[in-house]
Amino acid sequence: MQDEERYQQGMAVRRAVLGDAHVDRTVENLTPLNEEFQHFITRYAWGDIWSRPGLDRHTRSMITIAMLIALNREAELKMHLNAAFNNGVTREELKELIMHSALYCGLPAANATLHLAQQVFDQRDADGK
């Protein structure tokens, strides 16, 4: 696949997973500093890895969230907690994932994620989602 094809495929997957509003904000905020990086993410993270046939998006969301909990990457974690719903992940599954992460990532990481997840849930409820 050529870079432009990978970019287009990546943009379609990125929109499906993260939502049009998030991707539109990202595109609107492109700068000379971040433009190449954003194209790289779209081509390789979304057009290559997230497009592979070996795992469905639900599973990829769960794996991504678990890794972000372990790495303590709050901004990305919040984004992927919210995006997980676009991939069919339920609140109950997120709760179980966070509980499971307490064993492998530590109680502080799981506790911080519970608070972050509650913020996401509250915002989704307020937005009627």
UniProtKB/TrEMBL annotation:
Its EC number is 4.1.1.44. This is 4-carboxymuconolactone decarboxylase. It is an enzyme of class 4 (lyase). The lineage of its organism: Bacteria, Pseudomonadati, Pseudomonadota, Gammaproteobacteria, Enterobacterales. Keywords: Lyase. It holds the Pfam family CMD. Residues 36-118 form the Carboxymuconolactone decarboxylase-like domain. One of its GO terms (molecular function) is peroxiredoxin activity.
